[in-house]
Amino acid sequence: MLPKYKDIVELLKKGSTIEAQEQIMDLREGALELQEENYELKEKIRDLEAKLKATEDWSIEKSRYALVNPWRGAAQVYALKESSSDGEQAHFICPNCFQNTTKTILVPVREPKNGDALMNCPACKASINTGYSGIGAAEYAEKFLEKANK
């Protein structure tokens, strides 16, 4: 426990300068420890604020997409909503990366064995078989959501 200012003053009045100096040193040491702790807490606050901002930014970005099934079978991807596109071209996002708060655009390639069109993720290396030999350009999410509701 750190000494109190009044206790140091009393020691000085009594002429116990050595004891007072020891208590002053204890106070200085305590002040340095508090400064260190304060610095560490401020660093933690900065880190948490950065994480919170990233989470808020991802929430906004995430709301721009919808999970759709553009091909036959169980293959699902995230498609950009036209209503949130701000003129951005339609595209598909890897569902695996999306769940890990990363936006990676899928790249169409042809399966060498059977000629099916695949959607490959350059980040996580996931591969989605569309079940079609050709799929055309990506379309906005609303088109697939309308089909699903019919």
Enumerate the strands of the largest sheet in spatial order, edge to edge or round the barrel. Answer: 1-2-3
Shape, please? rod-shaped
Structural class: alpha+beta
How many discrete domains?
2
Low-pLDDT stretches are none
Strand count, sense and barrel status of the largest sheet are: 3 strands, antiparallel
Your description of this structure?
The protein is an alpha+beta fold and 150 residues long. The protein folds into two domains: 56 residues; 85 residues, no CATH class. The protein is 47% helix and 14% strand. The chain has four helices and six strands; from the N terminus they run ααβββαβββα. The strands form two sheets. The chain has a three-stranded antiparallel beta sheet with strand order 1-2-3. A three-stranded antiparallel beta sheet has the order 4-5-6, with no helix packed on it. A hairpin with a 6-residue loop joins β5 and β6. α1 runs antiparallel to α2. The longest helix is centred in the first third of the chain and has 46 residues. The protein is rod-shaped, with a radius of gyration of 31 Å.
